[in-house]
Amino acid sequence: GPGLQLFQLPSTWPNLDAVPNYLGALLPFPTLLEASAGVGHANYQTDKDGVIRNYLLAAGLGTNIIPSLALSTAMLSKPPLSIERERIRLGDQKVRIDSKGALRFCPYLKDIESGYFKTYNIADVLLSWNQQVQGQEPIIPRATFKDKIVLIGSTAQGLQTDRKVTAFDATTPG
User: Fold this and answer.
1) How far from each other are the two terminal CA atoms of the chain, in whole angstroms?
2) Closest Cα partner for 70 from 44, 33, 32?
3) 127: pLDDT confidence band, cut at 50, 70 and 90?
4) Pairing of strands 21-22, 58-61
């Protein structure tokens, strides 16, 4: 796969000067990076009161631009994504972005809690792959991930250190 895709902000981006620039990034290990269709940043900025209300859709890395995880994921979808001055369009769906190119934070946690976004333990995924290689029936069928966008990440639900204050909840995971 293409791995780390550097992003060219279109001339219609609301404010090119408002894109935050970082000196470095923690990237996936090389094998995973090479196998991925793309990666995205997971940075956020809080408002003056410490609450996260906006989601940065792009971040600078030196002289390059890296899309957010959400934007990188949307860029993989069909129909293609287009960015206009005040919105991102994906087929018939339109999402407003602010003058800095940020998205107002949306309450998708209810979708995660309702099971809309299915999660799998990486140990079960790797075990299934190994079972398939050995000619056994995998515990997670291969078709589960066919034609899907798969996000790989970590969770530490027992730890309270990875909680953020958002406009929707004082203890949002992330």
Assistant:
1) 27
2) 44
3) very high
4) parallel
